[in-house]
Amino acid sequence: MANNFGLQTRDLAKAGGFAANRAAREGDASYETAAALGNRWQPFAAYAKSEGVRRMEHVTALLLAAYGQDIAARVAAGELSASYGQNLVSAVNTIMRLASQGQWQSVSPTKDCGIEQRSNVRQGAPQGIERDAVSTVTDGLCRRGQPRGAAVVELARELGLRSKEASLIDARIALRQAQRDSKVSITSGTKGGRARTVPITSKRQVEVLSRAVDAQAGARSLVPPELSWQEWREGGRSQVPSATRDPSGTVLL
Predict the structure, then answer these.
(1) From CA 118, how far away is CA 98, in angstroms rounded?
(2) Which residues are within 8 A (CB) of 194 and not within 5 positions of it... i.e. 6 or more apart?
(3) Quick one: which of 156, 213, 243, 245 has the most CB atoms within 10 Å?
(4) What share of the chain is helix, strand, coil (3-state, %, to 5)?
(5) 3-state DSSP assignment of residue 185
(6) Where are the domains of the chain?
(7) Is the pLDDT of residue 111 over 80?
(8) What is the value of pTM for the model shown?
(9) What is the CATH number of domain 123-224?
């Protein structure tokens, strides 16, 4: 049997579309649904390849959960809607179930990945995102060597910052201002370039800023010095060292 459950391709990205199209031909899905599934499979295929996984037979629930936690970080930072993030994970579940003829352990976008519904209106800290869900996301990011990404998620949750604001903030200056004035001025990455002030009313907010300082290290922001904001936005937050694997190729978080 060829790679990718005999789908007549050795390319992981193409295999997802082939599985969805086969389901459409057999009447198990509409061609419109198959096209949507194939499109939503593509970012996962790219992620899997970046982790050294190039065959569907080597895709695991742990790998999908790690991918979902990266999506959850983008949702929590306001970059993606929760519904779209959940759809991305669900599409991978569907493709893998179709390709493996039902032999697939589904991953929950909410319970396993921490993707939660949230309000699109950013008036302050987004209280609609449960802290347990945020902790699931940030713990996973830190375990996989992404403290900067974890800091962005925490800043979004506790200070109500948008993704770009949280990424471009100089946490050292912000922490000093929070401790001195009980407020933080947000000047970089704001919508329309308009500066705004975020009140600091809890010890938790100060702790989050302190962790962001540690993650920032000697840089001017949470964006790594070697990356531009655009590179960070378009994938830098997901570029981490390869996860540890056992001899069979299974990803160990």
Answers:
(1) 30
(2) none
(3) 156
(4) 55, 5, 40
(5) strand
(6) 1-117, 123-224
(7) yes
(8) 0.55
(9) 1.10.443.10
